[in-house]
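Q: I'm a student working through a structural biology exercise. My instructor gave each of us a protein and asked us to get a predicted structure, then write a short paragraph describing it. Mine is Solute carrier family 26 member 11. I'm not confident about reading structure output yet, so if you can add a plain explanation after the tokens, that would really help. Here is the sequence I was given:
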Amino acid sequence: AAPPLFQSHEPAGMSWWQRAVRRRLPVLGWLPRYSLSCLRLDLTAGVTVGLTVVPQALAYAEVAGLPVQYGLYSSFVGCFVYCLLGTAKDVTLGPTAIMSLLVSSYAFHDPAYAVLLAFLSGCVQLAMGLLHLGFLLDFVSCPVIKGFTSAASITISFNQVKNILGLRGIPRQFFLEVYETLRRIGETRAGDAILGLSCLAALAGLQAMKSPQIPPFAPGFQGRSLPTARNALVVLAASLVAYSFQVSGSQPLTLTGSVPHGFPPFRPPPFSKAVPNGTVPFGRMVQDMGAGLAVVPLVGVLETVAIAKAFASQNNYRIDGNQEMLAMGTANILGSFFSSYPITGSFGRTAVNAQTGVCTPMGGLVTGTLVLLSLAYLTSLFCYIPKAALAAVIISAVVPMFDARIFRTLWRVKRLDLVPLCVTFLLCFWEVQYGIMAGVLVSGILLLYSVARPPIKVLEQGVLLVQPGSSLHFPAADHLRDIICDRALAASPPCSVILDCHHVSSIDYTAVVGLAELLQDLHKHGISLVFCSLQVRGQPCTAPALPAPCWFTRPRQGRGDIAVTSRWWQQRRPLSVSQR
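A: Happy to help. First, here is the predicted structure for Solute carrier family 26 member 11. I'll explain a few features afterward.
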């Protein structure tokens, strides 16, 4: 459970503006009650997450197709901003595998485009938070998310196979990448392959130490504390191996190369780009990024809010979705002034943060400080990090994103949900934006189809009893009318119709017009229509007059005979079916 410090608490007597400031600056809620015990917990969690984020940041920059220092540039501003504006104690903002994949697709491996994309994405996210547009995320269904993350897992993993094998000049488009990698597999560098596979095995072994079935190596040795720092340990060991080869005068490994020393310069994001033939203006850069200006901020918000909700539920505290969007938008905007590419919440680092007992978002302040220290003092050592080791870190991080069980689960729960899942999964191998947009479109079509074709139960017991399973809206009007007309007129002799509206909680104007036309059709054939179980709002309605014979039922005392009335729209209480 969340510590009492982080529970929402508003002192009595606060004015409206104080409550507004408190909502926009959540740090004011917990900072006055901050204690030394919380500081110890936050220091431990912050350092642990820092040991994870530094090697991951270097690796994710490779996924984004950017120089490795941009991963570190993107890893500290979000930590500082979220400490002030975030509403979840566990969440950490920074570069992630999925966001790096999107940046690779929309920034064209160009730092100028990546930084501008961060700024514009932050503006979109900030606007969504201010306008309370978080409900738009509800239209991205779970099958679409699972299809996208599973495809991203495969794409990112295979993208790193070339670094494991030491291959160069491999295209980044997935299908061409698979073809070229298999064609040139004979050119594999033995040193890179051996080191890469060894790092993968070491990471898998350290991860397995989390299992409760594996006992500590020795009394008093907390073996299960190693998995949280496994990335740093493996990268450090691989760097020592590379350094030993460098000292001996032979280098069989492909290294990261030199990393610029010091902090990134503070400057506005590039609103134009100099090229040999002139300058690419801002409008052209925006046009080049295209759908990325919608996909990147939406995926970022979706990932962060989903992670925050999951850990808030697990640790018994509440978050504010709109405030989370404000925090992330602010982090991306400010980060772009420090050469950051788009960031979002990281599930893996958030899990590490929660497991090490973080007490408040102050843990992010420690993590950000650790990243700045590494930029100040450790960049000269980063040149010895083998690319195969970073590739192993990425693969071990993204493989768990592939959820093979979701296919079987959806087959058992609702097979129709496999359609948006498979559409998203397959098209994401072509282009990420097409996969996401197609998945959302298919999900929307399935949602609209359920509105246009609600379940309708028809029973024949002397009369035709028709029971719509949900509310009636305009796409369903003709469908309901056709079913009633076909079944009522097909009977010999034609039978009266009872429309049981027990499950109809709302009905729109077009549906009312359709019912009026249905009444006219039935009246021509001498068939009566009875409405029962109506949920009436109790106010007069300007709907078109319904012609006789139109009957409505309500409960009666005594024998419970059907009562007839012509005042459907002015009934003041719910009506129900009554039988003899």
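A: Here are two points you could use in your paragraph. The longest helix spans residues 36-63. Residues 109 and 370 are 27 Å apart (CA to CA). It's a good idea to check both against the output above yourself.
Q: Great, thank you!
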